[in-house]
Amino acid sequence: QQTFKVSFYPTTVTIEASRGSSDTHLVVDRTTGQVTTASSSPAFSASPLRTLSAHGIMGLINLQRGPYVVLITGREAVGTIGSSTVYRVSATRVVRVADDRTPSGFDAADEATYVRLLENALQTPSFYFSYDMDLTCSLQRQDSGSNDVFFFNKYLAEPIINAVGSQSVFVLPVIHGFFACKPVEVRGTRFNYVLVTRRGRYRQGTRYLSRGADAEGHVSNYAETEQIVDFSSGDQMAYVQVRGSIPIMWAQVPNMHYVPELRIDVNASHERFQTHMTRMIDEYNEVVAVNLINKVKYEKPMGDAFAALSAEMKSPQYHYVHFDFHKECSRMRWDRISLLMDELSSLNTRFGYYEKKASHVQRQQLGVVRTYCMDCLDRTNVVQSELARLALEWQLRSSHVIEQTESVSSFPLLRQMLNNVWADNADTVSCAYSGTGALKTDFTRTGKRTYMGALRDGRNSVERYVRGNFFDGERQDSIDLLLGAYRVQASRPFAQTLSSEARALVGTIYVCLFMLAYAFFYPRNHSWFGISNVAFVGA
Question: What are the phi and psi torsion angles at 355 (to 5°)?
């Protein structure tokens, strides 16, 4: 159990760890925010102005007034991987480190807005960490090297890393995504089924405000999902999949239409596509890109661009498959996903999975399935859950837990657990990107598409439309601030005034809302004519 003591002195703030740091303390200058280390300090001999306790330090961030420290003040144990406990962040606190001096250009209202944006970004219940293992890395990556793509609080932690190095107890890598650990027993064999989704820290954001690839080849909604079979004997098996926005330069521009305007710049996409796919091959050795978007109508230009750029990839380690999900599975024929599974079978079997026995690596996963749709949410979730089911069957058969002729469906409790965990994962990833739960989760949970599920999808689609057109801007600002995509300057970005056209639009909206309310509550002659008024004004 790790805890941290944060002590405030007139010129410095010190941070002490309850274990693992010897006598070393972090010392933060309250004016500059510079972080240093010390084993003793004259300031320690005096009584601190105040002290705080925390379960972890997410890092430091400079706002207009100066440095703030982001503390993990609540945690909940949610499972284990091997002998390491995994915690969910249940509460955070943004605490001002800066002293009481007021810098030039400081505005209290702007500072309060920055703090609110940061607190909003931290309120999501999807941050996880472990004191004893680096949760940002898959099991295979922990053996072969590190990767900070999924180190979600890396920007906040950089001042501490620069002072003490990345391996210090004061550096706590946190992932943003999903974690579940379920105890399972099949024919007397006990194991934990673990599912971890790690969302990347580059180009993250909201659905319509973050699409495609940037100049460095980083894509929106990028996430790695790892399925772990963790036996009580200590043996472990893991299977990794990846999702993320189609790596070309494209956007969907919110314009009040239900289907926003689609813009694609293929000419500017060649280098971005090549950079992204080359990085994927470097990381996972071999990649099969599974394109699930429609081959006709609105999505066709995206599919054409994806296919053309894929054809330019000359690497034998890159493969491209296009499966028109909506066409193949139309009219509730969701069993036809098996067609895609069959097409991927030879590659997926060759890729295999990671396995460790008695602390020795027995095999490594040699490639990854990279799944795409427009949002990389709903269709992607369905396909990834099916691939995970097949991988789990391979793993349990090779471990002699189930017979070669048996499947997950042979064990109803196992099947139900698997379906529910993957549906929960789908909802969590979808909420992070679109603001609502995932679509098509009735199939993920039950294995069947239902009309009630279709109605639920309709409700979520309407909510996505409203959020995308009216509310996602501030959420995008919060994410950009947390991840360092936006760095606070001395200027006043929130003091910008609306244009005359924007002020006229806002005024018109207020007038319309007033007329709607008046027509509804004060109908002519107390008759149903009020509803006609509402319809007239709404039109």
Answer: -145, 135
Residue-wise burial string across 70-99, b where 16 or more C-beta atoms lie within 10 A, e elsewhere: bbbeebeeebbbeeebbbbbeebbbbbbbb
State the Cα–Cα distance between residues 435 and 430, nearest whole angstrom: 7
d(CA 467, CA 323): 29
Using the CB atoms, write b or e for 511-531: b if 16+ within 10 Å: eeeeeeeebeeebeeeeeebe
Assign 41 to helix, strand or coil.
Answer: coil
CB 215: neighbour CB atoms within 10 A?
A: 10
- Measured distance CA(90)–CA(70) in Å, rounded: 13
Q: Which of 468, 510, 476 is nearest to 255 (CA)?
A: 468
pLDDT tens-digit series, residues 471-492:
667 888 999 999 999 999 866 6
Chain Cα centroid distance, residue 90: 17
The beta strands (E) that lie in 413-458 are given as: none
Which 3 state secondary structure label does DSSP give 424?
helix
Secondary structure (H, E, C), 187-241: CCEEEEEEEEEEECCCCCCCCCCCCCECCCCCECCCEEEEEEEEECCCCEEEEEE
Coil, strand, or helix at residue 458?
helix
d(CA 409, CA 396): 13
pLDDT digits (tens, 9 = 90+) for 38-90: 886 545 567 899 999 999 999 999 998 889 999 999 999 999 999 999 999 99
Count Cα neighbours of 18 within 13 Å in the Cβ-side half-sphere: 11
Please provide the size of the chain in residues: 539
Cβ-contact 476, 470 below 8 angstroms: no
Residue with tokens 């963790």: 230
SS3 string of 236-296? Answer: EEEEEEEECCCCCEEEEECCCCCCCEEEEECCCCHHHHHHHHHHHHHHHCCEEEEECCCCC
Max distance between CA atoms of the chain, in angstroms, equals 84
Residue type, 503: R
Backbone angles phi, psi at 99, to 5 degrees: -75, -175
Is the CB of residue 27 less than 8 Å from the CB of residue 67?
no
Distance CA 17, CA 21 (A): 6
DSSP 3-state of 378? helix
Exposed e or buried b for every residue in 107-122, given b needs 16+ CB within 10 A? beebbebbbebbebbb
Contact residues for 28 (Cβ-Cβ < 8 A; gap 6+): 12, 13, 14, 15, 34, 35, 60, 67, 69, 97
Structure confidence at residue 474 (pLDDT): 83
User: 8, 381, 368, 428: which is closest to 176 by C-alpha?
Assistant: 428
